[in-house]
């Protein structure tokens, strides 16, 4: 499964579903479930956090997560995502996540973003895995 950017931000920004995301990410960290994120997600979280302590904690958690794999996007991936934007009415972040999910054969995209609902990979929420 591909983990959307919003799952990390929900926890980091202490939003209303932060506890659900924390439990899910803890299971991922322990290797009880497996998932993948993109470097684009990591950079987006870093940009929004914009705080060295938060970023260091985030990166250390990513690095120490047994069940989490990082997909390094290429310029070809980003070109493909840009093309998908028009065809699927997605913003760039969503298009890139969808493209990578397809490319790696992800069974689901874990996200609260309902833009993924109309795609051929099911959108699931963290609570379904805790």
How far is the N terminus from the C terminus?
Answer: 14 Å
Radius of gyration: 14 Å
The ordered string of helix (H) and strand (E) elements is EHHEHHEHHEE
Number of strands: 5
Under CATH, the topology can be stated as: Rossmann fold
Low-confidence stretches: none
- Write down the overall mean pLDDT: 94
Can you identify the CATH class? Alpha Beta
Largest sheet: 3 strands, parallel
Q: Tally the helices.
A: 6
- Tell me the strand percentage band: 5-15%
Counting helices, strands and paired strands, the structural category is mainly alpha
Label the overall shape: globular
Q: Can you tell me the number of structural domains?
A: 1
**Percentage of helical residues?**
55-70%
The CATH architecture assignment turns out to be 3-Layer(aba) Sandwich
The CATH superfamily bears the name 5'-nuclease
**Which strands sit side by side, in order, in the main sheet?**
1-4-5
